[in-house]
Design a protein that fits this description.
Catalytic activity: an N-acyl-D-glucosamine 6-phosphate = an N-acyl-D-mannosamine 6-phosphate
Number of strands: 8
GO cellular component, one term: cytosol
Structural class: alpha/beta
Helix content: 25-40%
Shape: globular
InterPro entries: Aldolase_TIM, NanE, RibuloseP-bd_barrel
Number of domains: 1
CATH class: Alpha Beta
Strand content: 5-15%
Radius of gyration: 18 Å
CATH architecture: Alpha-Beta Barrel
Enzyme class: isomerase
Number of helices: 10
CATH superfamily: Aldolase class I
GO biological process, one term: carbohydrate metabolic process
Largest sheet: 8 strands, parallel, barrel
């Protein structure tokens, strides 16, 4: 865990929970005011910061609270979709999000431009960079390239990273031991015990989304168990 002096928005997240408030296209909660309310509910529960996507959602959340806001813009259907270009970075920063999250994997970017341009665009706009990575090597490169935070967000979502049912705690531990910048644990953290385990593995902060803010998935988890219990035994 980073111990040197950090920018104020980052320092406020040390050892704390960040809640990701996002809804997928076509879902009933895909609405900026719904995400604003979701963020406020999470903050009432003890979250120290919010991660959210989409310019309208970010503006609505920023207007409602001054907690650290990690902003991103998902654009595209596959590959690099999290704040994929420097142009996306600038627009996310303009919403007032202090931290811009972006895909920092080794996959090609849709505009063919180098990742360094996106890092520079965030810093020029006065924002910090959270580099979402999938592997240890990507985390090292992101930190060397100027990322202010490195997140394990994309582990399990690329071909060269392990597909685990829960969080990639080994990646959290390895990055935390190797980097001077804060390492944020994110991805498939489904229980409070897993969130605690991520901090114990060396994470600076923990981001939880689905298990808190995605009722459709939560309902499916419960419905699957109920349906399994109700289903008559096979003969």
């Amino acid at each position: 865990m980073a111990t040197h002096q950090l920018p104020f928005p980052v320092e406020r997240l040390r050892g704390r929970l960040v809640v990701s408030c996002q809804a997928y296209p076509g879902e009933p909660l895909r609405d900026p005011d719904a995400m604003r309310r979701m963020a406020l509910a999470a903050l009432e529960g003890g979250a120290a910061g919010v991660r959210a996507q989409g310019l309208a959602d970010l503006r609505a959340i920023r207007a409602a609270t001054d907690v650290p806001l990690i902003g991103l813009w998902k654009d595209g259907a596959s590959g690099v979709v999290i704040t994929p270009t420097a142009g996306h970075v600038r627009q996310v920063a303009a919403t007032g999000a202090e931290i811009v999250a972006l895909d920092a994997t080794s996959r090609p970017r849709p505009d063919g431009r180098p990742l360094a341009e996106s890092f520079a665009a965030a810093h020029e706009a006065g924002a910090l960079v959270m580099a979402d990575v999938a592997t240890f090597e990507e985390g090292l490169r992101a930190a060397e390239s100027g990322a202010d935070l490195v997140g394990t967000t994309l582990s399990g979502y690329t071909d060269d990273s392990p597909h685990l049912p829960g969080p990639d705690l080994e990646l959290v531990s390895r990055l935390a031991a190797a980097l001077d910048v804060p390492v944020v644990a994110e991805g498939r953290i489904h229980t409070p015990a897993q969130a605690r385990a991520a901090l114990e593995a060396g994470a600076f902060a923990v981001v939880v989304g689905t298990a808190i803010t995605h009722p459709t998935t939560l309902t499916r988890w419960f419905a699957a168990e109920v349906d399994a219990a109700h289903r008559p035994p096979s003969r």
